[in-house]
Design a protein that fits this description.
The complex is a heterodimer of chains A (114) and B (113). In chain A, β7 and β8 form a beta hairpin. Chain A is globular. Chain A contains no helices and twelve strands. With 114 residues, chain A is mainly beta. Chain A is 0% helix and 51% strand. In chain A, strands 2, 5, 6, 10, 11 and 12 form a six-stranded mixed sheet that branches. In chain A, strands 3-9-8-7 form a four-stranded antiparallel sheet, with no helix packed on it. Chain B has 113 residues and is an all-beta fold. In chain B, the strands form two sheets. In chain B, strands 2, 4, 5, 6, 9, 10 and 11 form a seven-stranded mixed sheet that branches. Chain B has a four-stranded antiparallel sheet with strand order 1-3-8-7, with no helix packed on it. Chain B is globular and about 40 Å long. The chains are: A mainly beta (114), B mainly beta (113). At the A-B interface, β5, β6, β10 and β11 of A face β4 and β5 of B.
């Protein structure tokens, strides 16, 4: 069965530290990949997405992610985090099995200490 | 202008009651969704609805039923509410192609007492 996993449940960083959040999925076929962010008390917003082409994708607010097909991974990175990046981050996968549904990872809570 | 809106934002009710959550999108999208976010923040698809085709996640109890009066609305009806239904429910919409972003509403926090 298809699944999405995020291994980091809670990450605590100081401002200016670099960030990498892991996302792996289990499925041998073609996928579309997304990272969403949920700021405290707000709804989910798209950070970036990958569906084809350059496996290194850049998103909003200085975030980027790299799709490594051989590792079934789509890790999110940011070279220097800010306090305002404190939020919940969700990796999501569309397994292209007919229904246009997103399957989400369990989320990673990022706390940035000023 | 709000792209995807939901009402109410908060809903507190007793076990056994029937309630509805409304969702409207003004983006002209063809596909709408309902997701449930549990207390551990895990998001799970409940339904997707595209041009009158409803795709149901098989784990969703039949007490939950989506109703779409038109392309811009997908309301969620819940019958005989149970304690385990307490969660945040998110509506979303997108264009049909799989690579398109889903736009999420602000969520409805349902508390069943």
């Amino acid at each position: 069965a298809q699944s999405v996993s995020q291994h980091n449940h809670h990450v605590i960083l100081s401002e200016a530290a670099s960030l990498e959040l892991g996302c792996n999925y289990s499925y041998g076929g073609t996928v579309n990949l997304f990272w969403y962010v949920q700021y405290p008390g707000q709804h989910l917003q798209l950070l970036l997405k990958y569906f084809s082409g350059d496996p290194l994708v850049k998103g909003i607010k200085g975030f980027e992610a790299e799709f490594i097909k051989s590792k079934f991974s789509f890790n999110l990175r940011k070279p220097s985090v800010q306090w305002s990046d404190t939020a919940e981050y969700f990796c999501a996968v569309n397994f292209l099995t007919g229904a246009n549904n997103l399957f989400f990872g369990t989320g990673t809570r990022l706390t940035v200490i000023p | 202008d709000t792209a995807v809106s939901q009402t109410p934002k908060y809903l507190v009710t007793q076990m056994g009651n029937d309630k509805s959550i409304k969702c409207e999108q003004n983006l002209g999208h063809d596909t709408m969704y309902w997701y449930k976010q549990d207390s551990k923040k895990f998001l799970k698809i409940m339904f997707s609805y595209n041009n009158k085709e409803l795709i149901i996640n098989e784990t969703v109890p039949n007490r939950f039923s989506p109703k779409s009066p038109d392309k811009a609305h997908l309301n969620l009806h819940i019958n005989s509410l149970e304690l385990g239904d307490s969660a945040v429910y998110f509506c979303a919409s997108s264009r049909p192609a799989s690579y398109n972003e889903q736009f999420f509403g602000p969520g409805t926090r349902l508390t069943v007492l």
